[in-house]
Write a structure and sequence with these properties.
2 domains; elongated; mainly alpha
Length: 87
């Protein structure tokens, strides 16, 4: 009976220790994220307005057929190509 109580005590101490260390890691991570966001904020991407972006581009029929065929194969005929844009 003594071994059982010792085992349960060791298990409880181990679980509390692991839980405490995980809490420390979580809160230190949140602190690090807050510090990094304050010191080096995320850069805002600037969108370029070009003449080619406003003009619609014509897609080669062979390319469109290849894209449509690939979508049909991947989705098993359930997918549909609605719009193709160059990024």
């Amino acid at each position: 009976m003594e071994n059982l109580s010792l085992g349960l005590m060791l298990m409880a101490v181990g679980m509390i220790t692991v839980f405490s260390i995980l809490l420390i890691v979580i809160y230190l991570s949140k602190l690090l994220i807050a510090i990094v966001n304050k010191v080096a904020p995320e850069e805002v991407a600037v969108k370029k307005a070009t003449a080619t972006a406003s003009a619609p581009t014509v897609i080669d029929p062979n390319t469109m057929a290849a894209i449509t065929g690939a979508v049909n194969i991947v989705t098993g005929g359930k997918g549909k190509v609605m719009k193709v844009e160059k990024i």
